[in-house]
């Protein structure tokens, strides 16, 4: 009887390490301007960032910078090293201040005070893949801004690989960042671009 050696063996996908991922970019296997993330060893291609997405990220960055002072660094589209096979790039990270501003190493989950994802076409991926990933690695607080339905989901209290608490609102008003005990004015989160400029 002839057996197929391939079908009879255990199949495991190859998982890239962060080092291999960076090397692929260095040698040109990844386009220099490609938007990618490494999630559990797999490379995910991200869609181009639309105008509304980019403007919302910039607006949120400005709102956070107004209130955090020297208590945190506001990092935009910055790599977050979760393990040797996982390095997402959240839209925004509030990170603990570090000498050198993370010049020598990317922030890890222990450095994160808050992570924010802004979603339009990536909402399902952000909710089903990235939020559980942040919880699994111990990120304490995460916000998911859903531009499609104008809703803000606030996740907290990670336990057993999932966030235990979730609060959703379509009129966020003022929210507290628990790790810093500062309030952020988000009343215009979904309408900041609606005012005409004269």
Automatic annotation (TrEMBL):
Superkingdom per UniProt: Bacteria
Any one GO molecular function term: endonuclease activity
Signal peptide: none
Keyword Nuclease included in the entry's annotation: yes
Occurrences of domain Putative restriction endonuclease (ranges): 18-179
Record keywords: Endonuclease, Hydrolase, Nuclease
Keyword Hydrolase: yes
Official protein name in the record: Uma2 family endonuclease
